[in-house]
Amino acid sequence: xxxxxxxxxxxxxxxxLPLTTDCPFNLTAAARAGLGSDQSxxxxxxxxxxxxLNRTLAVVFMVSLAFAIxxxxxxxxxxxxxxxxxxxxxxxxxxSLAIADMMVxxxxxxxxxxxxxxxxxxxxPPIWYQGTSSATSSSISGIVSPWQPCMLIGPVFAGCxxxxxSTIFLMTLxxxxxxxxxxxxxxxxxxxxxxLLILLSWAASFLLALAPLIFSRNFTLEYNECSxxxxxxxxxxxxxxxxxxxxxxxFPAFDFTLLGGTLxxxxxxxxxxxxxxxxxxxxxxxxxSDAGGAGGGGGGGCPHRPSFSxxxxxxTIGILTFAFTASFSPIAVFVLGNVVGYTWCNFSFFAFWxxxxxxxxxxxxxxxxxxxxxxxxxxxxxxxxxxxxxEKT
Length: 393
Hints:
Elements: E1 9-10, E2 13-14, H1 29-33, H2 47-50, H3 52-82, H4 89-121, H5 135-141, H6 150-180, H7 185-188, H8 191-209, H9 211-214, E3 219-224, E4 229-234, H10 250-285, H11 290-296, H12 308-339, H13 345-357, H14 362-369, H15 371-384
Antiparallel strand pairs: 1-2, 3-4
């Protein structure tokens, strides 16, 4: 997820957009533009944002998070690949979600670790650091500037976020079919259709992530000192945003639309599950007549009863939706505050990295809720331990 940033490049010259922030900058981009090429450029933020202790703690946190994301999702992928029972449409969707999460742990987080360590050991910030990039002036003057890694890392993080949202939406739809139409589940939700929807979701997500670069020349990507990630930066003309700056609104519109649709589908599914559970309880107590049970179909609006595993899987996906919504909410608050003119430097760090931390939450939810996944993990580690020689297995 990306947002408007506090320091924004200006066409023809570099200036700082005066915004309210909880962590004032030590040196603005306008002042940095006036420095000679032989002078070293200090980081833009003060001790509260970029002190040595602060950076050390941030690096330790990032390394730990990257390790948890990679290990957790590698285990998830291994279990789903080696377990034949997991080769279902729901299993393919979980694999897609795990791949998107692992890309964050392999590319996005290590790049932030590398940049933070570079800022700690060198006095001059890297070229992709906020306010030091010459991409704006060079693109206008026709000089080819060095390629910035943020041009890859930024869209990857945004695209993986969109893939996660769209995959959770598809998982919710798949479970709603299993709950509402259990007899038609195999005919409606096939492996071929699921794989096609997964490919479409990946293509659409990364196309949306690249939309500001494809459909406009007034955006660049820089490593932001507050969020410690690569974010989109619109170019200012004088003191005005470019006329196509509204293209960034596609990001929250896409997120909120899919999250709202996921919430609506979950409400319908859980309502049906509640009706079915209440009717099953009445049948067990003998409070419901046999005629009413035969006519109702036993599913609270469903012609046939959904299986217990389908109900439990629907609840698991509901927890996944709740966890992702909770991790995405700080970003939504940050974007709204950014629109009205606040930067919230420290808050932006927590908002972006809470969303990043969600990439290692899915394996925890699977371990708690999915008995098949727990069994697959157990078999995976037991397979690695070879039995002693001569012992009967």
